[in-house]
Design goal:
D-Maltodextrin-Binding Protein, domain 2; 24% strand; LysR_subst-bd; transcription cis-regulatory region binding; HTH-type transcriptional regulator cbl; transcription
Length: 309
């Protein structure tokens, strides 16, 4: 976005470039050098924009340690939601223009977890690219809270994750699909013939499952804790492929998301349904006060059709 507009009020003369500098500095972790790269300008130019804005406001926007920016002052914290709203509206106007002039060309950025990207979205992305071959898809992987922040700050057009997305009023969420966990063991394991496994039995084996904060790990820990059980987690990983590999190697009994079990890839393993840890919902989120491009809406529609929503 090329922005060179001055807002004149009785006491202030603020350039949108100054507000843009604040916004990009925040979303780039207060790293002026990185923000300058994104904006295709120099670090010194951004510093001048910040100084000019602070002079206008007669207050510092950023907390500083020497020459480094480390956070927002109370004034900066109060300004940020309004700055984000301004650029949300600018993006919406830009999207309207792009949809009118170049409806089948552009970039769609998706922020999602590894599980969604690896096991759920490949078919959707293939169908989408068949419909919109000139749209560049950018797939960014993160934890659910980071995904929510990326959508809120305009770093991603669409976020896909579990319930964490529902906890933010800035987001508009669409139900994607429901899922639960599976226990996986080698086919020659003593548990392999069971139709289900009770919690005490499961807790008596060394376990291999997800890292904290990913794919329902919090619910797994809470369920064991509430049952007065303390299982031994011998390995925690972000990726169900890693979990499956180490279960196959005999390290322990695995707990993974049901959609992540691929029998064709791990023919030496078997999956056992369990409902101890509850049902989960994956959600699709966009920023509530902004409109994404029409091909983004088409992507969401494809996702909803995938599971008959």
């Amino acid at each position: 976005m090329a922005i060179d507009v001055v807002v004149n009020q009785r006491h202030l003369q603020i350039q949108l470039k100054q507000l843009e500098t604040v916004w990009h500095t925040v979303i780039n972790g207060y790293n002026l050098s990185q923000a300058a790269q994104v904006l295709h300008t120099s670090q010194s130019s951004l510093s001048k924009h910040i100084s000019a804005l602070e002079n206008q406001l007669k207050a510092e926007v950023f907390v500083r340690q020497g020459k480094r920016l480390t956070g927002l002052t109370p004034v900066g914290e109060a300004l940020l939601p309004h700055i984000e709203s301004i650029f949300t509206e600018i993006r919406t106007i830009e999207n309207i223009s792009l949809d009118y002039n170049n409806p089948h060309t552009g970039t769609l950025t998706l922020a999602t977890t590894h599980t969604q990207a690896r096991y759920v979205l490949p078919d959707i992305i293939k169908k989408f690219k068949e419909q919109y071959p000139k749209v560049q898809l950018v797939l960014q992987q993160a934890d659910p809270q980071t995904i929510a922040n990326m959508v809120i700050r305009g770093q991603a057009d669409i976020g896909i994750a579990t319930e964490a997305l529902l906890q933010n009023s800035y987001l508009r969420c669409y139900r994607y699909y429901d899922w639960s966990h599976r226990v996986i063991v080698p086919k020659d394991h003593e548990l392999a013939e069971l139709e289900t496994i009770d919690l005490p039995t499961l807790a008596s084996y060394p376990l291999v499952t997800y890292h904290g904060g990913f794919t329902g790990r919090g619910a797994i820990d809470q369920t064991f804790h509430e049952a007065g059980l303390e299982p031994e987690i011998v390995l925690a990983a972000l990726d169900a492929d890693v979990i499956s590999t180490y279960v196959g190697a005999g390290l322990g009994v695995g707990i993974i998301a049901e959609m992540a079990f691929e029998q064709g890839h791990y023919q030496n393993l078997t999956a056992i349904p369990v409902d101890h840890f509850g049902r989960f919902t994956s959600w699709i989120a966009v920023r509530d006060d902004a409109e994404i491009r029409h091909f983004g809406k088409a992507f969401i529609k494809l996702c909803q059709q995938q599971f008959g929503n």
